[in-house]
Amino acid sequence: MIKVPLDVPLARPTLGSAGSTGTWRILKPVIHYDKCTRCRLCYFYCVENTIDLEKNLYPRVDYEYCKGCGVCAQVCPTAAIEMVREVK
């Protein structure tokens, strides 16, 4: 597992820089907090910058801007993020 110090500076795009998702997303990430080790890889790899960290370092997805690409689920070392079909 990769541990990144809290004081590492990051350059990230502004939140939702690619625009709102609308109604076209097919899959969305669901975080299983019982499996999450708070490694922050999902946060670092999120292409759309839609994963933010709570004060306790648990990730939180902003579904208004998440595109459902699945990168966060792919990089999660504990399979704590599951891509599930979007229910409309």
From TrEMBL:
Q: Enumerate the NCBIfam families for this protein.
A: PorD_KorD
User: Could you tell me which PANTHER family the record lists for this protein?
Assistant: PYRUVATE SYNTHASE SUBUNIT PORD (PTHR43724:SF1)
Query: Which cofactors are named for this entry?
Result: [4Fe-4S] cluster
The superkingdom of the source organism is Archaea
SUPFAM superfamilies tied to this protein: 4Fe-4S ferredoxins
Task: Look up and give the organism this protein is from.
Answer: Metallosphaera hakonensis JCM 8857 = DSM 7519
Query: Domain named 4Fe-4S ferredoxin-type: which ranges?
Result: 27-56, 57-86
| Extent of the signal sequence | none
Task: Tell me what this protein is called.
Answer: 4Fe-4S dicluster domain-containing protein
The regions listed as transmembrane in this protein's record are: none
Keywords of the record: 4Fe-4S, Electron transport, Iron, Iron-sulfur, Metal-binding, Repeat, Transport
Q: Which PROSITE patterns match?
A: 4FE4S_FER_1, 4FE4S_FER_2
- GO MF assignments: 4 iron, 4 sulfur cluster binding; metal ion binding; oxidoreductase activity, acting on the aldehyde or oxo group of donors, iron-sulfur protein as acceptor
